# Entry
Amino acid sequence: MRVLVLPCLAVLSLVSGCGKSSKPDATADKPVQSDRSEKKDRAGDPVKTDKPWRTDPLLVGRFHPDYPDDIQVTVQDGGPRLTKHVPESMWVRVTGQAGKAYRGTLLNKPHNLTSVREGDEILFLAGPKGIDPFRVTPKYMQERKRWHILPCRKCGMPELFDAPSDLIAVIFPKLTGRKDIEEMKFTCFCQLCGGVQLVSDKPIKGWDDRSHR
Ligand SMILES: [Zn+2]
# Structure
Protein backbone atom coordinates (compact mmCIF):
# COMPACT_ATOMS: atom_id res chain seq x y z
CA MET A 1 0.00 0.00 0.00
CA ARG A 2 1.26 3.42 -0.85
CA VAL A 3 1.42 5.98 1.84
CA LEU A 4 0.30 9.40 0.88
CA VAL A 5 2.53 11.99 2.47
CA LEU A 6 1.17 15.48 2.53
CA PRO A 7 3.61 18.34 2.72
CA CYS A 8 3.69 20.07 6.06
CA LEU A 9 2.21 23.49 5.73
CA ALA A 10 3.77 26.38 7.50
CA VAL A 11 1.80 28.16 10.14
CA LEU A 12 1.27 31.70 9.15
CA SER A 13 0.72 34.14 11.93
CA LEU A 14 0.10 37.65 10.86
CA VAL A 15 0.10 40.68 13.07
CA SER A 16 -1.38 43.91 12.03
CA GLY A 17 -3.57 46.68 13.39
CA CYS A 18 -7.01 47.21 11.98
CA GLY A 19 -6.95 50.98 12.23
CA LYS A 20 -7.98 53.59 14.71
CA SER A 21 -11.00 53.08 16.87
CA SER A 22 -14.10 55.14 16.42
CA LYS A 23 -16.79 55.97 18.90
CA PRO A 24 -20.47 56.08 18.05
CA ASP A 25 -22.21 59.35 17.53
CA ALA A 26 -24.22 59.66 20.73
CA THR A 27 -26.70 62.15 19.32
CA ALA A 28 -29.38 59.61 18.53
CA ASP A 29 -32.85 60.82 17.79
CA LYS A 30 -35.72 59.56 19.86
CA PRO A 31 -37.86 56.68 18.60
CA VAL A 32 -40.62 57.70 16.27
CA GLN A 33 -44.29 57.39 17.10
CA SER A 34 -46.15 54.56 15.47
CA ASP A 35 -49.39 52.69 15.74
CA ARG A 36 -47.92 50.63 18.52
CA SER A 37 -50.61 49.44 20.90
CA GLU A 38 -49.95 46.88 23.53
CA LYS A 39 -52.46 44.08 23.22
CA LYS A 40 -54.33 43.42 26.40
CA ASP A 41 -56.56 40.61 27.49
CA ARG A 42 -60.03 41.05 28.95
CA ALA A 43 -58.63 41.60 32.43
CA GLY A 44 -56.53 44.44 31.07
CA ASP A 45 -53.23 42.60 31.51
CA PRO A 46 -50.77 42.54 28.63
CA VAL A 47 -51.02 39.41 26.53
CA LYS A 48 -47.86 37.37 26.95
CA THR A 49 -45.91 37.19 23.74
CA ASP A 50 -42.72 35.49 22.76
CA LYS A 51 -40.37 38.45 23.10
CA PRO A 52 -37.25 37.06 24.74
CA TRP A 53 -35.30 40.28 24.26
CA ARG A 54 -37.42 41.97 26.92
CA THR A 55 -36.02 39.64 29.54
CA ASP A 56 -32.49 39.25 28.18
CA PRO A 57 -30.26 40.24 31.14
CA LEU A 58 -27.93 42.04 28.74
CA LEU A 59 -30.77 44.22 27.46
CA VAL A 60 -33.03 44.71 30.48
CA GLY A 61 -33.10 48.39 31.44
CA ARG A 62 -32.02 49.53 27.99
CA PHE A 63 -35.45 49.73 26.39
CA HIS A 64 -37.33 52.99 26.03
CA PRO A 65 -39.69 53.34 29.03
CA ASP A 66 -42.71 53.99 26.80
CA TYR A 67 -41.75 51.65 23.96
CA PRO A 68 -40.73 48.30 25.42
CA ASP A 69 -39.28 46.94 22.18
CA ASP A 70 -37.27 50.05 21.24
CA ILE A 71 -33.60 50.12 22.07
CA GLN A 72 -30.53 52.12 21.07
CA VAL A 73 -28.05 50.18 18.98
CA THR A 74 -24.59 51.22 17.79
CA VAL A 75 -24.93 51.05 14.02
CA GLN A 76 -21.95 51.27 11.68
CA ASP A 77 -21.05 50.85 8.05
CA GLY A 78 -18.05 48.81 9.17
CA GLY A 79 -14.89 49.26 11.17
CA PRO A 80 -12.36 52.04 10.52
CA ARG A 81 -10.42 49.86 8.10
CA LEU A 82 -13.35 49.75 5.72
CA THR A 83 -15.10 53.05 6.25
CA LYS A 84 -14.51 56.54 7.59
CA HIS A 85 -18.15 56.87 8.62
CA VAL A 86 -18.52 57.29 12.36
CA PRO A 87 -20.84 54.76 14.06
CA GLU A 88 -24.17 56.17 15.18
CA SER A 89 -26.39 55.31 18.09
CA MET A 90 -29.80 54.63 16.54
CA TRP A 91 -33.20 53.50 17.77
CA VAL A 92 -34.21 50.02 16.72
CA ARG A 93 -37.57 48.30 17.25
CA VAL A 94 -36.76 44.68 18.03
CA THR A 95 -38.87 42.20 16.10
CA GLY A 96 -37.27 38.79 16.54
CA GLN A 97 -34.18 36.64 16.76
CA ALA A 98 -31.75 35.29 14.21
CA GLY A 99 -29.49 32.77 15.90
CA LYS A 100 -27.47 34.61 18.54
CA ALA A 101 -28.46 37.97 17.12
CA TYR A 102 -31.66 39.95 17.41
CA ARG A 103 -33.36 41.48 14.42
CA GLY A 104 -35.10 44.82 14.40
CA THR A 105 -36.21 47.79 12.33
CA LEU A 106 -34.30 51.07 12.19
CA LEU A 107 -36.53 53.89 13.40
CA ASN A 108 -34.31 56.87 12.52
CA LYS A 109 -32.60 58.23 9.47
CA PRO A 110 -28.84 57.86 9.77
CA HIS A 111 -26.82 61.09 9.77
CA ASN A 112 -23.86 59.85 7.78
CA LEU A 113 -24.12 56.09 7.36
CA THR A 114 -24.69 54.81 3.84
CA SER A 115 -25.25 51.08 4.36
CA VAL A 116 -28.60 51.48 6.12
CA ARG A 117 -31.76 53.52 5.76
CA GLU A 118 -34.69 54.29 8.00
CA GLY A 119 -37.01 51.29 8.00
CA ASP A 120 -34.31 48.75 7.17
CA GLU A 121 -34.10 45.53 9.10
CA ILE A 122 -30.77 45.01 10.84
CA LEU A 123 -29.22 42.42 13.11
CA PHE A 124 -27.55 43.28 16.37
CA LEU A 125 -25.85 41.55 19.26
CA ALA A 126 -26.41 42.28 22.93
CA GLY A 127 -23.49 42.91 25.20
CA PRO A 128 -21.39 41.75 26.86
CA LYS A 129 -22.29 43.69 29.97
CA GLY A 130 -21.25 47.32 29.82
CA ILE A 131 -21.19 47.43 26.03
CA ASP A 132 -24.10 48.86 24.07
CA PRO A 133 -25.88 46.55 21.62
CA PHE A 134 -24.18 46.81 18.23
CA ARG A 135 -25.06 46.04 14.65
CA VAL A 136 -23.73 42.94 12.91
CA THR A 137 -24.28 41.74 9.37
CA PRO A 138 -25.48 38.30 8.23
CA LYS A 139 -22.07 37.86 6.56
CA TYR A 140 -20.28 38.54 9.84
CA MET A 141 -22.51 36.14 11.77
CA GLN A 142 -21.90 33.44 9.19
CA GLU A 143 -18.11 33.86 9.23
CA ARG A 144 -17.93 34.36 12.99
CA LYS A 145 -18.57 30.64 13.56
CA ARG A 146 -15.15 29.83 12.10
CA TRP A 147 -13.15 32.42 14.04
CA HIS A 148 -11.91 32.85 17.59
CA ILE A 149 -11.56 36.30 19.07
CA LEU A 150 -9.69 37.17 22.24
CA PRO A 151 -11.78 40.07 23.58
CA CYS A 152 -10.36 43.55 23.94
CA ARG A 153 -8.30 43.74 27.11
CA LYS A 154 -9.56 47.23 27.89
CA CYS A 155 -13.33 47.03 27.35
CA GLY A 156 -14.05 43.33 26.77
CA MET A 157 -15.45 43.76 23.25
CA PRO A 158 -15.55 40.18 21.88
CA GLU A 159 -16.67 40.98 18.34
CA LEU A 160 -15.48 42.83 15.24
CA PHE A 161 -17.34 45.41 13.19
CA ASP A 162 -16.26 43.73 9.93
CA ALA A 163 -16.45 40.21 8.58
CA PRO A 164 -12.96 38.65 8.92
CA SER A 165 -12.76 38.00 5.18
CA ASP A 166 -13.36 41.70 4.50
CA LEU A 167 -10.66 42.68 7.00
CA ILE A 168 -8.16 40.22 5.53
CA ALA A 169 -8.88 41.51 2.03
CA VAL A 170 -7.81 44.96 3.17
CA ILE A 171 -4.99 44.10 5.57
CA PHE A 172 -3.48 41.18 3.64
CA PRO A 173 -4.79 41.50 0.08
CA LYS A 174 -2.28 38.99 -1.28
CA LEU A 175 -3.67 36.28 0.99
CA THR A 176 -7.28 36.43 -0.18
CA GLY A 177 -8.36 33.02 -1.42
CA ARG A 178 -5.15 31.26 -0.38
CA LYS A 179 -5.80 27.69 0.73
CA ASP A 180 -2.29 26.79 1.87
CA ILE A 181 -2.31 28.75 5.11
CA GLU A 182 -2.63 26.52 8.10
CA GLU A 183 -3.40 29.20 10.61
CA MET A 184 -4.46 32.77 10.22
CA LYS A 185 -3.92 34.93 13.25
CA PHE A 186 -3.78 38.69 13.55
CA THR A 187 -4.24 41.44 16.09
CA CYS A 188 -6.80 44.13 15.65
CA PHE A 189 -7.50 47.40 17.41
CA CYS A 190 -10.81 47.33 19.24
CA GLN A 191 -13.25 49.45 17.37
CA LEU A 192 -14.83 50.80 20.54
CA CYS A 193 -11.86 51.82 22.66
CA GLY A 194 -8.65 51.26 20.70
CA GLY A 195 -7.56 48.28 22.82
CA VAL A 196 -6.17 45.14 21.25
CA GLN A 197 -8.06 42.04 20.14
CA LEU A 198 -6.54 38.83 18.87
CA VAL A 199 -8.27 37.07 15.98
CA SER A 200 -7.48 33.51 14.89
CA ASP A 201 -9.06 30.78 12.83
CA LYS A 202 -7.73 28.28 15.37
CA PRO A 203 -8.62 28.09 19.07
CA ILE A 204 -6.54 30.56 21.02
CA LYS A 205 -4.43 28.83 23.64
CA GLY A 206 -5.95 29.20 27.07
CA TRP A 207 -9.07 30.83 25.72
CA ASP A 208 -12.35 29.28 24.63
CA ASP A 209 -14.54 32.10 23.40
CA ARG A 210 -17.49 29.81 22.90
CA SER A 211 -17.85 29.57 26.66
CA HIS A 212 -18.19 33.34 26.86
CA ARG A 213 -20.97 33.73 24.34
ZN1 LIG B 1 -12.15 47.80 23.55
